[in-house]
């Protein structure tokens, strides 16, 4: 029985670059060793063949919305049904993982019963098929230092959590904005530990365009994102990000929130929603902060 099940719903493998980076990502997951199993969900073109080639499990059946986009609820339910281990991890299919992904999961699982583990990614331009032999991990880390850039603490590309968590998820569209924010909100609302593992887990997002999306628009500009926002419960919930976590994993230990101007502002904004389920008050406080920020910005420009 695997300790950690990594699951994902990859895009089609018809675009050569998308195919390359997705194969790179999945192979990096497989390289984590015997404690990890990989499950790929969906019937996208080329997925079955790729799963066979890479030696990982493939479950083609998945529920979809009216646009044909797989539903997060179905993807998560499939992974839960098809696995037995204590931990699950959803990972976007363009993300390269390194061994600390597994060790960090072990660490937090020993410290808490219910949690979500998230973190920032490193963006890196990867064009070629990677070779997973020799010192590939050291070479990748060198590439990150030389050419990578740390992404802002917005948007999440992986979630590690016990199988007892997230047993009910709205019918979000995968690959569209909003649902990843809801994951962090849900952890905070339920009182689970929401842990930022940026200092302990290095993940690499292989850069790509948005040609696979309708009209080549980014996911934030699609109607399905609006529907995700509605299903999440509103814009104030889909504002949740790594600024809203309440723990950090550093050198194998859990530390408190990283207090600064941004996290203090978010704590004030979200307090009514998390403590009293008062959406209106959170919206009003958020709007007030935005007006102050806008006014301050205009003042600086005029000086």
Strand content: 15-25%
What is the ordering of alpha helices and beta strands?
EHEHEHEEHEEHEEHEEHEEHH
Using the coordinates above, name the CATH class of the largest domain. Answer: Alpha Beta
Domain tally: 2
Stated plainly, the CATH topology of the largest domain is called Spore Coat Polysaccharide Biosynthesis Protein SpsA, Chain A
How many helices? The count is: 9
Largest β sheet strand count, sense and barrel closure: 5 strands, mixed
Q: Strand order within the widest sheet?
A: 3-2-1-4-9
CATH H-tier superfamily of the largest domain:
Spore Coat Polysaccharide Biosynthesis Protein SpsA, Chain A
- What's the CATH architecture of the largest domain? Alpha-Beta Complex
**Helicity, as a percent range:** 25-40%
The radius of gyration is 19 Å
- Which structural category fits the helices and strands? alpha/beta
On the 0-100 scale, what is the average pLDDT?
94
Shape category: globular
Distance between the termini: 64 Å
3D architecture notes:
By secondary structure, this protein is α/β, with parallel strands linked by helices. Helices cover 39% and strands 16% of the residues. It has helices at 16-30, 47-54, 72-81, 100-111, 136-147, 179-190, 223-232, 261-276, 279-302, and strands spanning 4-8, 36-41, 57-59, 87-91, 95-96, 115-118, 122-124, 149-150, 158-162, 193-196, 204-206, 247-250, 253-255. It has a 5-stranded mixed β-sheet, with helices on both faces. A 4-stranded mixed β-sheet has the order 5-11-7-8. The protein has a 4-stranded mixed β-sheet with strand order 6-10-12-13. α8 (261-276) packs antiparallel against α9 (279-302). The model is unreliable at 298-303 (pLDDT under 50).
């Amino acid at each position: 029985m695997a300790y950690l099940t990594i699951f994902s719903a990859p895009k089609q493998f018809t675009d050569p670059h998308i195919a390359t980076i997705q194969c790179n990502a999945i192979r990096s997951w497989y390289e984590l060793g015997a404690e990890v199993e990989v499950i790929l969900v969906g019937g996208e073109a080329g997925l079955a063949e790729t799963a066979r080639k890479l030696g990982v499990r493939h479950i083609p059946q998945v529920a979809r919305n009216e646009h044909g986009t797989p539903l997060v609820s179905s993807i998560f339910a499939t992974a839960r049904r098809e696995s037995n281990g204590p931990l699950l991890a959803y990972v976007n299919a363009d993300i390269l993982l390194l061994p600390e992904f597994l060790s960090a999961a072990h660490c937090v699982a020993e410290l808490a019963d219910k949690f979500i583990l998230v973190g920032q990614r490193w963006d890196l331009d990867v064009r070629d098929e990677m070779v997973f032999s020799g010192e590939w991990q050291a070479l990748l880390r060198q590439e990150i230092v030389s050419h990578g850039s740390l992404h802002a603490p917005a948007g999440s590309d992986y979630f590690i959590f016990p199988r007892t968590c997230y047993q009910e998820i709205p019918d979000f569209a995968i690959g569209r904005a909003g649902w990843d924010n809801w994951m962090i909100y849900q952890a905070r609302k339920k009182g689970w530990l929401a842990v930022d593992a940026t200092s302990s887990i290095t993940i690499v997002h292989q850069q790509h365009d948005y040609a696979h999306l309708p009209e080549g628009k980014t996911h934030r500009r699609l109607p399905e994102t609006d529907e995700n926002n509605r299903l999440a419960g509103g814009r104030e919930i889909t504002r949740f990000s790594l600024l809203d976590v309440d723990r950090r994993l550093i050198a194998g230990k859990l530390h408190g929130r990283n207090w600064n101007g941004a996290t203090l502002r978010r704590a004030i904004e979200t307090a009514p929603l998390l403590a009293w389920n008062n959406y209106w008050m959170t919206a009003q406080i958020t709007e007030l902060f935005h007006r102050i920020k806008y006014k301050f910005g205009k003042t600086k420009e005029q000086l």
